[in-house]
Task: inverse folding
């Protein structure tokens, strides 16, 4: 006869299992499990089999086991999980790529009907068209102020109607109508709410960032540091180039306004004394552009047949 484990033994076994997983895995996804059935959870377990393990349990038991593991091993970083164990949540321990695991979990969503009293996770809009219901069912539509008409002996919805707004509770009339129309507006599955990686806990949105997003955020941060440094005249690596350029501009302005001078300022002073030198300096740049444009112009000329001008005719006539 096999004896069933007592409640104390179950707690001990759970503690040992969770502590073992915390020893083996440094990455954990904290997932919300509202409205997820056992069959659906079993399918997710099969899909993640190989490098990930799902562990469910009461929040008090998970917190207790994490504290025990922290005390035994001295690993205080795991206690960062405790504030996030709120509500109906579970833990996915993984050694795989966090983004790939998150995407795999998102695949296992199941459609669900709108039950009375349920808080709508999304807006529910009833599309226009024939409902297939007989005219005796129009009372449902009238209660919900849905415009309809009778078409070929059935009820037809004229315009799309926002039946339930996100965050509102589903009423009995809305639930009955959606059931009659065969609409299952909601879908449920495990939702990643937080990510634990080697002691750090962050939002799952971080997993969707690309290298371009990171570079953009980094450049924005550098720009803010440079702006603040310039505003308070505090030198930093980000602001140093701007400070040097501004100092050079100030020195140049003082040299131009006074008799003090240096080699770079002498050149500017010469330009200010003789503005025609500005045109002379601009000439090489214009010449470079013309050199670049010349080959293209020559190619265009080669394609066109050459024609003798009137002037050439006059010159040739003088020597006849």
Result:
């Amino acid at each position: 006869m096999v004896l069933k484990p007592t409640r104390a033994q179950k707690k001990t076994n759970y503690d040992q299992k969770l502590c073992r997983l915390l020893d083996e895995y440094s990455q954990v996804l904290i997932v919300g499990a509202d409205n997820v059935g056992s069959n659906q959870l079993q399918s997710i377990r099969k899909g993640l089999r190989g490098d990930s393990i799902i562990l469910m349990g009461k929040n008090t038991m998970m917190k207790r086991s994490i504290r025990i593991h922290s005390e035994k091993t001295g690993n205080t970083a795991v206690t960062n999980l405790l504030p996030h164990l709120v509500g109906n949540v579970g833990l996915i321990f993984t050694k795989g790529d966090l983004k790939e695991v998150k995407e795999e979990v998102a695949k296992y969503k199941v459609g669900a009907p709108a039950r009375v009293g349920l808080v709508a996770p999304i807006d529910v809009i009833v599309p226009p068209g024939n409902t297939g219901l007989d005219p005796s069912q129009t009372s449902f539509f009238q209660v919900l102020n849905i415009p309809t008409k009778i078409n070929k002996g059935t009820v037809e919805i004229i315009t799309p109607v926002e039946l339930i707004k996100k965050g509102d509770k589903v009423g009995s009339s809305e639930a009955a109508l959606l059931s009659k129309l065969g609409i299952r507006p909601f879908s449920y599955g495990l939702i990643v709410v937080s990510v634990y990686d080697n002691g750090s806990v962050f939002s799952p949105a971080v997993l969707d960032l690309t290298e371009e997003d990171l570079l953009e955020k980094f450049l924005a941060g550098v720009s803010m540091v440079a702006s603040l440094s310039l505003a308070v005249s505090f030198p930093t690596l980000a602001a140093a180039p701007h400070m040097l350029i501004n100092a050079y501009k100030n020195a140049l302005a003082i040299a131009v306004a006074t008799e003090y001078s240096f080699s770079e300022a002498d050149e500017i002073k010469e330009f200010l004394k003789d503005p025609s030198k500005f045109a002379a300096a601009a000439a090489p740049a214009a010449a470079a552009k013309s050199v670049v444009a010349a080959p293209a112009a020559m190619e265009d000329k080669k394609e066109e047949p050459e024609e003798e001008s009137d002037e050439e005719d006059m010159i040739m006539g003088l020597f006849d």
